[in-house]
Specification:
- The complex is a heterodimer of chains A (about 160) and B (about 250).
- Chain A is built from seven helices and two strands; from the N terminus they run αααβααβαα.
- With about 160 residues, chain A is mainly alpha-helical.
- Chain A folds into two domains: about 60 residues; about 90 residues, P-loop containing nucleotide triphosphate hydrolases (Rossmann fold), CATH 3.40.50.300.
- The longest helix of chain A has 23 residues.
- Chain A is globular.
- Chain B has about 250 residues and is an alpha/beta fold.
- Chain B has a single domain, classed as P-loop containing nucleotide triphosphate hydrolases (Rossmann fold), CATH 3.40.50.
- Chain B is built from eight helices and five strands; from the N terminus they run βαβααβααβααβα.
- A five-stranded parallel sheet of chain B has the order 2-3-1-4-5, sandwiched between helices.
- The N terminus of chain B is likely disordered.
- The chains are: A mainly alpha (about 160), B alpha/beta (about 250).
- Chains A and B meet through α1 and α3 of A and α3 and α5 of B.
Chain lengths: ~160, ~250
């Protein structure tokens, strides 16, 4: 619970200072992770699914939400290849499912991923196959983003006289 | 507030049996059947809550009850952060609410629930109603607040120490003077701290009153002497604890 609420507090702070002002100014805001991360992570930690959604109901609904989907093995392999040390909470070691960080990561993130699948359905996230190459993924991203930019009101608002 | 929608609402509302969660949130911590009792003492600033709780605690302990106290913003996890945030100007009403909720969640999981499990009487110096009142006055959506605090446990007893603004002003000035937050200066009613205090506390009192029926507040007239108030609290607590003890052989 405290884990979930601390993240929500941090999110609220960023929303009000870093996200809403640029949106009002007509800018594009790129958010690396959003409320959906909290939905999957907190639910995996045992917090009620509906409660987290209601908690974040103050969030702005994104114009476009991309989800980079990858099988758990690909994700583990990538992290191992870079020899990164798995972070305690990222590996879900607080859950006590396994004392082996890699095994715990696999169990925890595996549940996080299946929670994401539910979220993709519920909130209509656009799925990008993250097992593919960076170039392929970037092309896909650009294709998905383009239509939103075409209707952007930024240029029109430039025409308005400066007050 | 008393719309028909309310009854079907998930979250903190009066239709919940005491000793249970109001709504959703912590499925991983089942609390049904815990023997402890949760008693909340509510009331605005300067109303004499801590004095009453101290006396009540002593009296309960003499009678053989295990007692723990818990108080608003007293969690080891959050207290320093809350103090820091209050001293700067970066806090807005949403982050304010969420910091308080985090503090409460920490105390709930680490103090209140374990104590209830072990059969303690938990005396809570303020409870979620303070948060609901403060945030409500600041215009935070009431339905969202109730859903947020759905993870709270409905107390067995809620005492509301009720005063009028005039009495309150006298007491606060006598004791320590008015402070920025207690005067609701963040609401920008004006530069005058006295006027702001009066307007803010008036709104708070109205907000508490609006919750009284819904959450089964037991109103205690807090304009009376410390001893008189204490006698009434003891009488009601004793009656409750005795009736709760009856079905179980000692």
């Amino acid at each position: 619970m405290t884990f979930s609420l601390l993240h929500a507090t941090d999110f609220a702070d960023r929303l009000l200072y870093k996200i809403i002002p640029p949106l009002k100014a007509g800018m594009i805001v790129l958010a690396d992770r959003y409320a959906y991360t909290a939905f999957s992570r907190d639910t995996t930690r045992g917090v009620d699914r509906q409660w987290v959604r209601e908690l974040y109901s103050f969030a702005v609904r994104p114009d476009l939400a991309l989800y980079f989907r990858t099988p758990i093995e690909v994700s583990v392999d990538r992290l191992m290849a870079r020899r990164v040390k798995l972070k305690f909470y990222e590996a879900g070691l607080d859950m006590g499912w396994s004392s082996n960080p890699v095994e715990s990561f696999r169990l925890f993130q595996g549940k996080v991923l299946s929670e994401y699948d539910r979220i993709v359905e519920e909130f209509g996230l656009q799925v990008i196959d993250a097992a593919g190459s960076i170039t392929e993924q970037q092309r896909m991203v650009r294709q998905l983003v383009a239509p939103h930019l075409a209707t952007s009101p930024v240029e029109m608002s430039d025409e308005q006289p400066v007050a | 507030m008393s719309s028909p929608l309310h009854d079907s609402l998930d979250g903190a509302n009066g239709g919940i049996q005491s000793g249970r969660y109001y709504g959703r949130a912590i499925p991983y911590l089942p609390i049904d059947g815990y023997p402890g009792k949760l008693i909340a003492i509510e009331g605005t600033d300067g109303v004499g809550r801590s004095t009453q709780i101290e006396l009540l605690r002593e009296w309960l302990e003499v009678r053989g009850y295990g007692v723990i106290e818990t108080g608003w913003t007293r969690s080891p996890l959050m207290q320093p952060t809350i103090e820091l945030a209050k001293s700067s100007n970066t806090l807005n009403k949403l982050t304010f609410v969420l910091l308080y909720a985090t503090d409460f969640a920490d105390r709930l999981e680490k103090e209140i629930i374990p104590a209830l499990k072990a059969g303690f009487v938990v005396l809570s110096d303020r409870y979620i109603f303070t948060a609901l009142a403060r945030a409500g006055v600041r215009g935070v959506d009431r339905q969202w607040l109730r859903s947020l605090y759905g993870f709270a446990i409905a107390p067995h007893l809620v005492f509301y120490l009720k005063v009028d603004v005039e009495t309150l002003i006298g007491r606060v000035l006598e004791a320590r003077g008015m402070d920025f937050w207690e005067s609701g200066m963040d609401l920008k009613h004006g530069d005058d701290i006295y006027d702001s205090f009066r307007a803010y506390q008036n709104k708070l009192l109205r907000e508490y009153s609006s919750m009284a029926d819904e959450f089964h507040f037991r109103n205690i007239d807090a304009r009376r002497s410390v001893d008189t108030i204490q006698m009434e609290l003891r009488r009601q607590v004793a009656a409750f604890l005795e009736s709760a003890d009856e079905p179980r052989p000692e």
